[in-house]
């Protein structure tokens, strides 16, 4: 899987997590992480912890300290800068090498500027009709069935279709594209994450060559033009790294937003009825869903570039720090916590980050969340869990939080 502290892949079957530190990962923790985080917040704003792949680091759980850490100039994203690995090893071992997620200024500033145009609120508005078409097409296939697994048939398919169209991935390659992304993130327990990383990056290299030969209006072609026409401002390594980031950050987060939101509404049908009665509540409700269940439960690692004082603790140079967004969110709004209120209207959260690394894809994720949820609620008005007594299965390890299955039933239409 991809380690939530370091961003590096490791095979959990061959790792031996050190004892003596609390475990912040794995099926037991992830299944009940909101309650676990509440206990941790009561005792300290950050903790030393370990993850299922054997990595250890500091975990920030307090909302105020999370904002400080996300914007701290000495908590850097690049482990090379922190003196932990060589540039050669990092480029070889990390899926996202060469992209803004693992870069610090000035490289981060340059890379972010190059892709920012594709993820403006205006661009999300332009994509809304196509997002609606995709939702309608998926629901046309689901509505006559009377039952389905919403994760398999809807929440995983919609974001992949949108990001694939944005990047120019042909429809016949999208299923394996999804599989490689899942492997790379550790969403498929027991699979080889390095293989997923290699296959995803290998296909992106093929796609880049295709777009060089036959440019189109997709984002990859636009990035290639930047690289080829602007004196090499975007290297091939940066093209691949940016592509990998867009694939995973551009769709996995929305998969989890949609899945967690629908799970919450299925567990609390009165909240779903409020949204059906007043669809105007949906934009605010999306913020509430983001607050309640952060799609990215832990940030990829930051590293102390020098000794740093944080939350009363001394973070030594080179030590990793990850921010538990899923914990910080529950203390960020008045009357917050794990309760759901789609009428809240003032939901504050850190699910898209804070500071210079604030998520560029936030407008697109919000658009997909709003349209995707409204479409389901309208088309399947009597939607309910197939087995309300069955506990929801959640992603069992790693960065992300979201349901892995949502079996439902409804009147066929």
Low-confidence stretches: 1-17
Assigned CATH superfamily? Cytochrome P450
For the biggest β-sheet, the strand order reads 1-2-8-5-3
Mean pLDDT over all positions:
84
**Helix and strand run:** HHEEHEHHHEHHHHHHHHEEEEHHEE
Can you summarize the main beta sheet? 5 strands, mixed
Indicate the CATH architecture.
Answer: Orthogonal Bundle
CATH topology annotation: Cytochrome p450
Our estimate of the beta-strand percent is: 5-15%
- Total helices: the number is 16
Task: Assign an overall shape.
Answer: globular
- CATH uppermost class: Mainly Alpha
Instruction: Indicate how many domains the architecture comprises.
Output: 1
Q: Tally of extended strands? A: 10
Distance between the termini: 40 Å
Rg for CA atoms: 21 Å
Describe this protein's structure:
Helix content is about 50%, strand content about 10%. By secondary structure, it is α+β, with helices and mostly antiparallel strands. It has one domain (about 10-410): Cytochrome P450 (Cytochrome p450), CATH 1.10.630. Strands 1-2-8-5-3 form a 5-stranded mixed β-sheet. Helix 8 (about 155-165) runs antiparallel to helix 12 (about 235-265), helix 12 (about 235-265) runs parallel beside helix 16 and helix 14 (about 280-290) packs across helix 16 (about 360-380). The longest helix is centred in the middle third of the chain and has 32 residues, at about 235-265. Residues about 1-15 have low confidence and may be disordered.
């Amino acid at each position: 899987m991809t380690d939530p502290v370091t961003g590096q892949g490791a095979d959990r079957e061959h790792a031996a997590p050190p004892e003596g530190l609390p475990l912040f990962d794995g099926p037991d923790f992830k299944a009940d992480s909101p309650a676990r985080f509440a206990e941790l917040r009561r005792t300290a704003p950050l903790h030393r912890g370990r993850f299922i792949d054997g990595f250890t680091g500091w975990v920030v759980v307090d909302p105020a300290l999370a904002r400080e850490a996300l914007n701290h100039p000495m908590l850097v994203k690049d482990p090379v800068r922190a003196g932990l690995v060589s540039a050669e090893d990092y480029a070889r071992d990390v899926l996202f090498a060469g992209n803004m997620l693992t870069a610090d200024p000035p490289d981060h500033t340059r890379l972010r500027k190059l892709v920012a145009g594709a993820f403006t609120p205006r661009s999300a508005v332009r994509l809304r009709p196509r997002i609606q078409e995709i939702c309608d097409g998926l629901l046309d296939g689901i509505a006559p069935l009377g039952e389905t697994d919403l994760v398999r048939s809807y929440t995983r398919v919609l974001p992949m279709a949108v990001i694939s169209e944005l990047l120019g991935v042909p429809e016949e390659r999208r299923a394996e594209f999804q599989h490689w992304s899942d492997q790379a993130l550790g969403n498929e327990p027991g699979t080889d994450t390095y293989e997923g990383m290699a296959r995803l990056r290998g296909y992106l290299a093929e796609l880049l060559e295709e777009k060089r030969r036959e440019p189109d209006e997709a984002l990859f072609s636009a990035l290639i033009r930047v690289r080829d026409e602007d004196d090499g401002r975007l290297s091939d390594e940066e093209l691949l790294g940016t592509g990998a980031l867009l694939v995973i950050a551009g769709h996995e987060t929305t998969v989890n937003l949609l899945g967690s939101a629908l799970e919450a509404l299925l567990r609390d049908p009165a909240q779903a009825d409020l949204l059906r009665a007043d669809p105007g509540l949906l934009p605010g409700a999306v913020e509430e869903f983001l607050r309640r269940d952060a799609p990215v439960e832990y940030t990829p690692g930051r590293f102390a570039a020098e000794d740093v004082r944080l939350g009363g603790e001394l973070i030594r140079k080179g030590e990793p720090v990850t921010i538990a967004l899923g914990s910080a969110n529950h203390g960020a709004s008045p009357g917050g916590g794990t309760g759901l209120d789609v009428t809240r209207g003032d939901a504050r959260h850190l699910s898209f980050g804070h500071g210079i690394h604030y998520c560029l894809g936030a407008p697109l994720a919000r658009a997909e969340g709003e349209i995707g949820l409204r479409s389901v609620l309208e088309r399947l008005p009597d939607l309910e869990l197939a087995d309300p007594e069955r506990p929801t299965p959640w992603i069992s390890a790693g960065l992300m939080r979201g349901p892995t299955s949502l079996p439902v039933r409804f009147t066929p239409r």
